[in-house]
């Protein structure tokens, strides 16, 4: 009992006295992560080839920066407790890869877990937070994703605070990505600890998974902003489980939600369609807008068959998504200025962000027709 009273007391003090304040996450992070496509089948070659592909494909020019190694890189600890990379998959160690990634003008991320073991039963950081943070910093790591497997009854705010302080103590700015799947409502407390926090369980490469996660964001879209972002999980664009129309909706929605844009496909063999989705300049600009206000659901129509989502932007304009969630029928969706503006009769310019052109000037409302099943229209209204 004493212990729990002390824990609550400590957490309160910590909550008041610490802010992550590492200068990172001023806009949502952009990059690539190995998990969604490769899962545990990773090695030095695939990480370095992906880093190079980030440059040669043009993803770097579009803003993608972090090359993030997910679970399965570590195998154990040496006699001093220092974490060891798998000597078969990563024969030259992690610093070797970090140096290469940096030489390309990119940043490198790594993965750990708040428990004793990671989700794939590799060593986690529980009890080793300080030494792990020091090790990452000595390798030149720029980003840490920390998972929540094998943590039993631990308190996430407390465990993540320990790593947050350990990262801070290294003196190296390291982006801290919390991944406890929304347990204990991290959006209520993680802003002081990390730069982004997962809000749900893992995404799968299906329309159903993507929209289940979307619905879970609805009540929490105000709990995000400059320095700390709600993370509805990484992108599945290009992994093959959704149609092009669905991937365009996925990317549009994640951009409007101020979600991290972490590609999860094999970028070494990216096809033109996937590339054009992941690099849609004006859609990315909505995500990276410096105001940092997350978009939110404005209206649902016919149950939630059709939806209007909107996000205020720094220049006073609004980004809007007209989304057709119906499985079979195309939809007509009317945006009324009153849905997003206080002065409903003004004339406003409507711009199509995927076509990258102004549609026209409209007074009072704009109606989009023939939005395909699972498709959307993404606009800027100004
Ligand atoms: C560590 O925290 C202090 C106080 O919040 C902050 O000023 C400093 O920039 C942080 N350093 C790093 C490397 O995150
Ligand atoms: C490295 O990983 C990639 C992706 O899983 C795989 O195709 C390749 O065979 C692996 N290379 C080695 C040497 O294990
Ligand atoms: C993909 O785009 C490149 C560069 O724009 C072009 O050269 C190539 O023909 C395109 N490939 C296909 C299959 O359309
Ligand atoms: C609507 O689409 C779903 C999924 O594609 C399909 O299973 C269902 O049979 C369709 N329903 C009608 C009425 O066409």
Automatic annotation (TrEMBL):
Superkingdom of origin: Eukaryota
EC number assigned by the record: 3.2.1.22
EC category name: hydrolase
One GO MF term: alpha-galactosidase activity
SUPFAM superfamilies the UniProt entry points to: (Trans)glycosidases (SSF51445), Glycosyl hydrolase domain (SSF51011)
Catalytic reaction equation(s): Hydrolysis of terminal, non-reducing alpha-D-galactose residues in alpha-D-galactosides, including galactose oligosaccharides, galactomannans and galactolipids
Annotated ranges, domain Alpha galactosidase C-terminal: 304-381
Keywords: Disulfide bond, Glycosidase, Hydrolase, Signal
GO biological process, one term: melibiose catabolic process
Signal peptide from the UniProt entry: 1-19
Xref: InterPro entries: Aldolase_TIM (IPR013785), GH (IPR017853), Glyco_hydro_27 (IPR002241), Glyco_hydro_27/36_CS (IPR000111), Glyco_hydro_b (IPR013780), Melibiase_C (IPR041233)
Recorded family membership: Belongs to the glycosyl hydrolase 27 family.
Name of the protein this chain belongs to: Alpha-galactosidase
């Amino acid at each position: 009992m004493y212990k729990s009273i002390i824990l609550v007391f400590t957490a309160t003090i910590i909550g008041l006295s610490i802010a992550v304040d590492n200068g990172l996450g001023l806009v949502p992070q952009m990059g690539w992560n190995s998990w969604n496509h490769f899962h545990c089948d990773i090695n030095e070659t695939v990480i370095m080839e992906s880093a190079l592909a980030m440059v040669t494909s043009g993803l770097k020019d579009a803003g993608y920066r972090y090359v993030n190694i997910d679970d399965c890189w570590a195998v154990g600890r040496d006699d001093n407790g220092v974490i060891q990379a798998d000597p078969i998959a990563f024969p030259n160690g992690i610093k070797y890869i970090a140096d290469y990634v940096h030489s390309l003008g990119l940043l490198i991320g790594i993965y750990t877990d708040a428990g004793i073991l990671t989700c794939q039963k590799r060593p986690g950081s529980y009890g080793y937070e300080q030494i792990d943070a020091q090790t990452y910093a000595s390798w030149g790591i720029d980003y840490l994703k920390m998972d929540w497997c094998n943590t039993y009854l631990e308190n996430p705010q407390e465990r993540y605070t320990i790593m947050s302080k350990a990262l801070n103590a290294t003196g190296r700015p390291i982006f801290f990505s919390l991944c406890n799947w929304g347990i204990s409502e991290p959006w209520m407390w993680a802003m002081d600890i990390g730069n982004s926090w997962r809000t749900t369980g893992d995404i799968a490469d299906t329309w159903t998974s993507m929209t289940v996660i979307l619905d879970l964001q609805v009540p929490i879209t105000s709990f995000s902003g400059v320095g700390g972002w709600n993370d509805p999980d990484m992108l599945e664009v290009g992994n093959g489980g959704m149609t092009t129309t669905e991937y365009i909706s996925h990317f549009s929605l994640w951009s409007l939600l101020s979600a991290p844009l972490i590609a999860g496909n094999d970028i070494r063999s990216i096809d033109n369609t996937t590339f054009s989705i992941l690099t849609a300049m004006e859609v990315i600009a909505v995500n990276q807008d410096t105001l940092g206000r997350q978009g939110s659901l404005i209206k649902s129509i016919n149950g939630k068959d059709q939806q209007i989502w909107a996000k205020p932007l720094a220049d006073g304009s609004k980004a809007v998504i007209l989304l057709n969630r119906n499985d079979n029928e195309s939809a007509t969706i009317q945006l009324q200025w009153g849905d997003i503006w206080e002065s409903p009769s003004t004339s406003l310019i409507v711009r199509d962000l995927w076509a990258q052109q102004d549609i026209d000037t409209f007074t009072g409302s704009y109606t989009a027709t023939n939005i395909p099943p699972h498709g959307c229209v993404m606009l800027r209204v100004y």
